[in-house]
Structures are given as C-alpha cells and as structure tokens.
Amino acid sequence: MDTPTITTDRLLLNRLGQADAPALFAYRSLPDVARFQSFEPNSMEDAEAFIRSCAGVEFGAAESWAQLAVRSKETDELLGDVGIHFLEEGTQQVEIGFTIAPKFQGRGLGSEAVCGLIDCLFGILTKHRVTASVDPRNAASMALLKSVGLRQEAHFHESLCFKGEWVDDVVWAMLRKEWLGLERRDT
After folding, report:
1. CA distances (Å), 162 to each of 65, 86, 159, 178, in order?
2. Which entry of 68, 110, 155, 185 is 20 to 30 Å from 143 by CA?
3. In this predicted structure, what is the pLDDT of residue 182?
4. Phi-psi map region of 30: left, alpha, beta (phi>0 left; psi -120 to 50 alpha)
C-alpha cells in the first residue's frame, strides 16, 4: 500500500526523508522529548539510519511501525512526527504515537496532526480501533488524547521496564464508530 499524504488545515503528514534528519535529531535528542520516546538518536547518523529504516517499511504491513513526518503546510518545515503500529493481521487495530518539537508545542499542532492521522486510519484505511500507550507522567500527551476524544481504558502500574525503570502505562482508545459519530473537529 502506498503511504498516504494526510492534509489538515496547517499540516502535511507524509514519509520522512533524509533531509529531515537534522530537524529530527534536534528535537528527538532533547532530554525532555527523549524521556518518553523509545527512539532516542545519539547522533545525526542515528537519525539518518532511523529514516532509512522507515523508508523500508511497507505502509500498512501487519506487525510494522510506519513513521510519518508532521510538516508545516506553508513552509514544509518538519514540526514533529507520528508513528503508526499496524497490529496483527486481521485485527484492524492500530496503535499510534506522536512527537511535536518543543518549539512548536502549545499551538494545537499535535491535536491537529493526531486528528488528521485518525481521520485517515478510520476513513481511508477503515480501521476498527485506534489505541495509544502513554506514560502518565507525560501530562501533555494524556491531555491531547483526551481532548481529541480518546478514552482512557486502562492504567497498568509499573508494567513496563523502560530505560531502566519500572513505569506505568496508560492505554487510550477509540472505535471507528465513535470517531465517525463525533461532531466535526477543527483540524
């Protein structure tokens, strides 16, 4: 399946390219960003290798992660990225993740990117269920997921050993029928 380009009022979500490596490295290597991320580049080479590995992933393949750039529609500047984990074949379920560079936070861009992504997942790809897994100390991500309409389904205490410490995991989710039934969002 070809990777879709997702368009919102202010954003384009599409494949990461090698030209994105400096910006990706700049925000993904910041301690406050890396704290909650599994991919933490230690060098520009790490960022370049990550982008190369993403290019080799077939969009929509079961048991794969696809990473998309979040770009300014006006300037094409990389503002962040979103990840989509296509779960087991036949489940019609996906897990999402998102990162917005700190200098672009507080403008509603994360919500807009997540809404655009979910519109694509439920609309074009007709997925049944979208989930997100969040460390509850990441208050901004928790608030974003709630604001776009996902519900908290579970809070697992010290269920993940992440970066050498036991952390909680909060699972958020929404069904396609729930998303399609929401009043139109400003995206």
Report:
1. 19, 22, 9, 32
2. 68
3. 83
4. beta
| pLDDT, average across residues 80-90 | 95
Which whole-number Å values give the CA distances from 156 to 36, 168, 174, in the listed order? 16, 6, 18
CA 117 to chain centre: 8
pTM above 0.90, yes or no: yes
> Could you give the 3-state DSSP secondary structure of residue 32?
helix
Tokens read off for 55? 């290019």
User: What pLDDT digit, counting tens, does each position of 10-55 carry?
Assistant: 999 999 999 999 999 999 999 999 999 989 999 999 999 999 999 9
Contact indicator for 109, 79 with CB cutoff of 8 Å: yes
Phi, psi of 4 (to 5 degrees): -75, 150
Q: Which amino acid is at 105?
A: Q
Kindly give the pairing relationship between strand 78-86 and strand 6-7.
Answer: unpaired
